[in-house]
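From: lab user (bench 3)
To: helpdesk
Subject: output format question, protein + magnesium ion

Hello, I'm new to running complex predictions and I'm not sure whether the block I got back is the full result or only part of it. Here's what I submitted:
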Amino acid sequence: MSERVRIYEVGPRDGLQNEAVAVATATKARFIELLADAGLREIEATSFVAPSAIPQLADADRLLEGLSRRPEVRYPVLVPNLRGLARAEAAGADAIAVFTAATDAFTSANIGMTVDESIAAFVPVLERAAELGWWRRGYVSTAFGCPYTGRVDPARAVEVALRLLALGVDEVCFGDTIGVGVPSQVRRLTGLAIDAGIPLDRIAFHFHDTRGTALADVAAGLEAGVRCFDASTGGTGGCPYAPGAAGNLATEDLVYFLDRSGMEHGVDQAGVLDAARFIAGALGRPVTSKVGQAGGWDPASGAATGRA
Ligand code: MG
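Helpdesk reply: Thanks, we reran it on our side. This is the complete output you should expect:
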């Protein structure tokens, strides 16, 4: 098993979409540039949902068109339907993510569709994206727990993932949407996915640090052989289901953990901290991630590194 880990950055999309402070398009573009400077090679840039649904990302077209994209970086965008896909295509996208969940209650509340209906809606989207030769990811949210129905059977999350893979997605990403997951669940879910025939290199995890378990969950995922983890620089996004609490795992915390664990990932801690401070400044608040506050650590000298 490779020691190389992919860090899939979700700050510009999943992070910012949950932030109340409006961020200017040029600021988002600069944030994305800083993330690429830091060595991130997959940066989920924005979302082509209806502009009225997420005002923060209503500038998706302008942002993507104006971005100075680098050939070595993938910039997936969230696309809910064919209308969003057409907008993404016009703006020059070449990678998409589609979004469903393991529970009908969650998709009904979020996108007004059952899981089945959401998957049916993706069929033409994923077909068209395949024709265009785009990379495709499918999210399975609430894979570890649902804010409306509680406990989620991991077999159900795997079943939804299999349906997305049958529609041609390159990768499925299991999300702990409300940050309730623990390592034993990660092991169980990964085991069921492997048993169902899903290759490890087509599985990603999206953990939230709402209850402090995100890095423990990453460790369990790594031990189970998964090599792609989502993170949000600066830990932006919060948790809509627990106002004031942490949401997305912060990229700088993940980078620290992987560096100290001897896992290769190609991302520079100092660069991530620069980007974290930049976006926190734009949002008018300090960086609240663990490493954002404590800094990294230089084992040669014992000193903290990269503190503001
Ligand atoms: Mg998230």
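A quick orientation on your result: The radius of gyration is 18 Å. Let us know if anything else is unclear.
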